Amino acid sequence: MSKQGNVAIAPADGRLGILIPGMGAVTSTFIAGVEAIKRGIADPVGSLTQLGTIRLGKRTEGQTPRIKDFVPLTPLECLSFGAWDIFEDNAYEAAIGAKVLDRSLLDQLKEPLSAIQPMKAVFDNNYVRRIHGPNVKTGANKMELAESLMDDIREFQRRNNCTRLVMIWCGSTEVFHKAAAVHRTLSAFEDGLRKSDPDIAPSQIYAYAALKLRVPFANGAPNLTTDVPALLELARQNEVPICGKDFKTGQTYMKTLLAPGFKARMLGVSGWFSTNILGNRDGEVLEDPGSFKTKEETKLSVLEQILQPDLYPKLYKDLYHAVRINYYPPRGDAKEGWDNIDIFGWLGYPMQIKIDFLCRDSILAAPLVLDLVLFMDLAQRAGMKGIQEWLSFYFKGPMTAPGLYPEHDIFIQLMKLKNTLRWMQGEDLITHLGLEYYD
User: Fold this and answer.
1) Distance between CA 389 and CA 408 in Å, rounded?
2) pTM of the model
3) What residue ranges do the domains of the chain occupy?
4) Reported CATH class of domain 251-358
5) Average of per-residue pLDDT across 139-143
6) Does residue 439 carry a pLDDT above 50?
């Protein structure tokens, strides 16, 4: 343990195990990408931890180290991967089925990917209705399922000789549900597990298992998961960092780029219509209205928080905002996000902006997974517990401390992230005063 800055950060010694519920397109693309980068046959494009820099001190001093050289992150060579999935395909087979990466690349990575066989998953068709698979755990109750997951975690750690672990949810979007009585306290939640309370979702069983074993947990989907008092209590009690929710990748990423610009120039927005077509497993799951409702909640919340219509009613109070998602199998993982934006300027004169983002969902998500697991491990080694708001940069619906509104402006989010790293290492924070903020 060394104290270089404001917090004591334990060294990143030994292996870091990455445990992932869901061996679909995002997970297989992430793991294959890390293996390709380790072998020098690809670059970590899109990863802040691997390619990003951080300015220190005054602009005139010229100090801009790589983030991975500034804070003690785990090297990629020291990562081990494990996953749960309702399908039995190993990571190589899952990657071929996902059709995100070229077969020629995957064949170069066949040996390490084939070695990653998914463990039996906790699954409930009441929460994900459109897919079915054979590789599913059974148990007398949900507590027994949680204990089975904890056994999996311990065995994975032993078998891979890991000194530390992180869990990140890359599974399907669950149907929309709100916090219930069973979520109010940890004791109520544990009683609910023993009684198999229907309001406890599979993702919450994974989160409970992780937090009980003091494993940091990140939520890459819009599911309720850890955003309930019971699991927040467990995270604080066991001093474990958590973060989420819903990876900010395609269309919402574009919204958090554009909306701050409109507000900065005091341009009005009267309408923002967004539609998506995608053909991967995520698209199939989101065909279900319940799962779509969960996704819609995070997608719709972004503009409300960025534009602040209560403060600027003449510009944004009557904004019409709609989001649609359509499953279109021929498109596969190559999602298309189309936006029509009606804005108005000086004297109320109307203008339009149209965006057609032909993106690749898993290609955009994979580097976010890498950054999050490395930063969550750093937070754990720095003794940072509970909600990690400084990682809001990566999420559509960032978790916040109770009573606070989430920050959605991507540029403010990035400033907070980098200032947190500066604070950890005892460097001056960068603002427009004194040191002048310039990234």
Assistant:
1) 11
2) 0.92
3) 2-247+363-424, 251-358
4) alpha beta
5) 97
6) no
